[in-house]
């Protein structure tokens, strides 16, 4: 990929930054947790944001003090994902979070490289439903990594594919796991959402209405 040396590369998270699929994950996991008589709370859900499907189920088992066989583990992962995908049936471009599409277009017009790093193995499917898959020069998702957020592997891969040093990458994340991961390798982090959960981000914004391309001028 051609380097655009003078401009930071923007790396976007998907769930919670580009579209609000987090509520669907929460509903689907709630049902899984209820099998263990465990009521999944919003605090629990904050800790599941950005975390892979496998690691999410491990956390639920830990919280509910439960142990299950490998077969059951695989079955619950599949059932959760089936519920989640069913909830996404009607997902469309109307579900893109306010301001983010316009920001990406503006950034593309100003020669910024646009990358995605999502922990989701459904990322390509979701981007297609939102009809924005072509906006990304680089896409990394849960299928490309061996270790999920808060490990920085996915951000390292995205930076490499974008031909950009981590210090020249700006990451937009709604999860503390994602912010921790990107901070670890010296990327600039912009937390999108609740300030309490994202206090380690370089900057925190409620949404993209509060963000302008000029904020990232070198
Ligand atoms: P899937 P992100 C993450 O996406 C979600 O925040 C997290 O809740 C989910 O468990 C994870 O993807 C895996 O998703 O089950 O679809 O593979 O926020 O990194 O875009
Ligand atoms: Mg997210």
User: How much helicity do the residues have?
Assistant: 25-40%
CATH architecture of the largest domain: 3-Layer(aba) Sandwich
The name CATH uses for the topology of the largest domain is Rossmann fold
**CA-atom Rg in angstroms:** 17 Å
Which sheet architecture does the biggest sheet show? 6 strands, parallel
Unreliable spans: none
- What percent strand? 5-15%
What is the helix/strand order?
EHHHHHEHEHEHEE
CATH homologous superfamily caption of the largest domain: HAD superfamily/HAD-like
Cross-sheet strand order for the largest sheet: 3-2-1-4-5-6
How many strands appear in the DSSP assignment? 6
Summed over residues and divided by their number, the pLDDT gives a mean of: 95
Number of domains: 2
Q: Note the total helix count.
A: 8
């Amino acid at each position: 990929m051609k380097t655009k040396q003078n401009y930071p590369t923007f790396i976007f998270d998907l769930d919670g930054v580009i579209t609000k699929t987090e509520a669907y994950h929460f509903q689907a996991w709630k049902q899984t947790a209820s099998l263990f008589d465990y009521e999944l709370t919003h605090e629990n859900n904050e800790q599941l944001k950005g975390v892979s499907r496998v690691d999410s189920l491990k956390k639920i088992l830990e919280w509910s003090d439960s142990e299950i066989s490998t077969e059951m583990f695989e079955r619950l992962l599949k059932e959760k994902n089936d519920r989640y995908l069913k909830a996404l049936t009607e997902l469309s471009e109307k579900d893109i979070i306010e301001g983010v599409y316009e920001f990406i277009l503006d950034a593309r017009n100003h020669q910024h490289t646009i990358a995605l790093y999502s922990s989701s193995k459904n990322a390509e499917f979701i981007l297609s439903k939102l009809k924005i898959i072509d906006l990304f020069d680089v896409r990394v998702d849960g299928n490309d990594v061996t270790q999920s957020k808060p490990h920085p592997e996915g951000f390292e891969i995205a930076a490499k594919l974008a031909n950009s040093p981590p210090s020249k990458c700006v990451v937009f994340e709604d999860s503390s796991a994602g912010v921790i991961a990107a901070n670890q390798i010296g990327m600039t982090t912009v937390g999108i959402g609740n300030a309490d959960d994202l206090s380690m981000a370089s900057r925190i914004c409620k949404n993209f209405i509060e963000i302008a391309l000029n904020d990232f001028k070198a």
